[in-house]
Amino acid sequence: MNRRDLLMGGGMLAAAGTAFALAPRERLVLLAEDQTLEAIVPSQIADWQDRPSDAFILPKTPGSLADRLYNQTLTRLYVSERGLPVMLVIAYGAVQNDQLQLHRPEVCYQAVGFNIRSSVPKALPLGRADLPMRALEAVSTTRVESILYWTRIGDDLPTDGGSQRMVKLRQQMAGYLADGVLVRMSSAVPASDAVFDELARFAEAMVGAIAREDRDVLIGRQLAGELA
Length: 228
What we know:
Elements: H1 3-22, E1 26-28, H2 37-40, E2 44-45, E3 48-51, H3 65-69, E4 72-79, E5 86-93, H4 105-111, E6 115-126, E7 129-139, E8 144-153, H5 161-173, E9 176-178, E10 180-187, H6 193-209, H7 216-219, H8 221-227
Parallel strand pairs: 1-9
Antiparallel strand pairs: 2-3, 3-4, 4-5, 5-10, 6-7, 7-8, 8-10
């Protein structure tokens, strides 16, 4: 065997060792097999009440890659005599990896013909910590939506696509694959500070209305612990 073959062989062994080291060997799943989003999220949240509706922009369509990604999806319209109607979408995926990962609203809205007019990070104070979120305005020729959402991957709460990729890489290097959830609230009105404040009020009320033992499903164990 010549020196070139030895070098090539050594390189292949090093690559194989790196791949083995990065291969996840554990799972972090915060939604138990016997839990459902339908049961976790109350139909009454503060002064909002669940009402039937089909006016949703959804993160998946039957037979699509996203359809294989999400194990559970909850869609509800909440109406209130005091505030804006809120369209709630929660999409849960048991595995987050390079092939299966949460589809952020910036992507799924553009896929159905919307333009993202604005996208800014927000923070919702919860207990002794903040819940990192993102606020969007999505506009089409026939509709405008103000959107407030967050994503959870394991115990991490990334606010954009770049940080989401970094979270998955860091978790992979730590040797585990995590589950993930997208929590999205929207109203079919133009964006304003008052609208996003109303959506944030709904978000805070929703987290508070969920049983303590179930909150980590939506916001992760660390932030849920700050509320206990």
